[in-house]
Automatic annotation (TrEMBL):
Top-level taxonomy: unclassified sequences, metagenomes, organismal metagenomes
Stated name of the protein: Dephospho-CoA kinase
Enzyme Commission code(s) on record: 2.7.-.-
Keywords of the record: ATP-binding, Kinase, Nucleotide-binding, Transferase
Kinase among keywords: yes
Length: 53
């Protein structure tokens, strides 16, 4: 399995290139922002860890 990271500043086009890759190639796309938001949702272990800091 290979992993490719896409980085860049705000408005650099990261989301657009990921949309293109997702539409034209058979691969899974994971957005770190989405994962980070899910980890911080109330009721999750990540949320509890942040509260305890």
């Amino acid at each position: 399995m290979r992993f490719i990271g896409i980085t860049g500043g705000v408005g650099a086009g990261k989301t657009e290139i990921l949309k293109y890759i997702g539409q034209h190639y058979k691969c899974e796309i994971y957005l770190a922002d989405d994962i980070g938001h899910k980890v911080k949702e109330p009721g999750t272990e990540g949320y509890q860890a942040l509260v305890e800091l």
